[in-house]
Each structure stands twice: as C-alpha cells, then as structure tokens.
Amino acid sequence: MKTDIRYFCKAKHVAHASDYPKIHIGCIAVYQGSIIGIGCNTNKTHPIQKYYNSYRADDDNFDSADDLLPKLHAEINCINSIRYMNINFAKVKLYIYRLRNDDKPYGISRPCPSCMAAIKDLGIREIHYTTNDGFATEFLENKYI
Fold first, then answer.
1. Contact (CB, 8 A) for 110 and 129
2. What is the per-residue pLDDT across 48-69, written as a single tens digit (0 to 9) for each?
3. CA 128 to each of CA 32, 44, 57: distance values in angstroms, whole numbers, following the listed order
4. CATH of domain 2-139
C-alpha cells in the first residue's frame, strides 16, 4: 500500500495541472514500477474522447447536448500518451485521483463508461482510484474472454 500511496500522490500532483473549471482529475499509468504516462482532464477536445463518449449513452449523468463534452478526460489523456508503446498493457496499472473543492481530501474518481471502454480496449486490467472515503481497486476482466 505504501507504493500505491506514492502513486496516488503523483496522480494528485497531476490533477493540479487540470484547466477544467469544475473538477480536477489526474491519472498516471504505471508499468513494472515506473510511471510511463500521465494525464489530467482538460477543456481541450479530442476525437478519441468523442468516439468513446458513445459508450455513455446509458449513463444517467451524460447529456449529449452539454457543451462541456467531449472535453478530454484524465484517463483517456493518459492512455493517449502510452497507446503506441510496445508493452504488455495487461501489466499496466492506472491510478486516478480527484481533487475536491470542499474540506475532503479526495472524491470519487471511478472511470466513467467511456473511459472504462478505452481502458478495456487497450487491455489494462488493474485500476486504482479515489472514493469519497479513501481508495478502491478494481481488477477488470479480459475483454476477449
């Protein structure tokens, strides 16, 4: 867990770089103990985010008319920085940290359906993220089983 805290601290640091006005989220990718990619949510748009937003059709929080979309999510921003690396993505771990605007140190940062689809498409199997009460880990099933 000590190593995980170190990676969460780095993801928190990345979240501070976000230019998104409401929510600041940072994501780092770790492979064999080394940080290989980082990303934060941003006001910039990206065609990959637009593509993966189609997976949010059943998401109650998704409003396709919302002019804030398809702003780039931290997870997809991070994945874009590593997607062409010649590595075993099943061994990549993502750490996602959401900064809060109130007195709590962190908030829920579980990937939305669009980000989860992108994570699974790349073959990443392990994600760690903040919750309102601490930290959570999910082990994802292989997409092709």
1. yes
2. 998 998 887 666 666 655 544 5
3. 15, 25, 24
4. 3.40.140.10
